[in-house]
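So, can you check this record?

>
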Amino acid sequence: MHQSRIQAVDHVVREAPIGLGEALRWFYGCVGCLDEIPPHSTSRPVVLFRSARIELRVYLVDNPQVDSAGFPVVLAVESLEETAELLDERSVQYERITATHWGDVRLETSDPGGNRVDFVRHTPVGPL
């Protein structure tokens, strides 16, 4: 039997309260270094971001399903120190986590809508 392997993740979906569009643009655009892209034809308010082949969709809704403790959106950034400085400028709380093996350091935080986000140091292995 042939086993298939995941080649890439197409997109990630999150929700946030209506009115947080600008805060999300700062968080994912400025801090997360993702490019904002125009929304596809949709009847729901959404803020879209893209990095290489991965798309992040944040739907703006009245009663969002916030993922504050589950699986995080993991964003690879060039510098955790610069990322921490940007978060500090806006008093965004985060925790610096160091794992048991060398080099595994991350910043755990939440986006403006309350969804869990981890920033990790970028290690080039090919485009996603």
The longest strand covers residues 54-61.
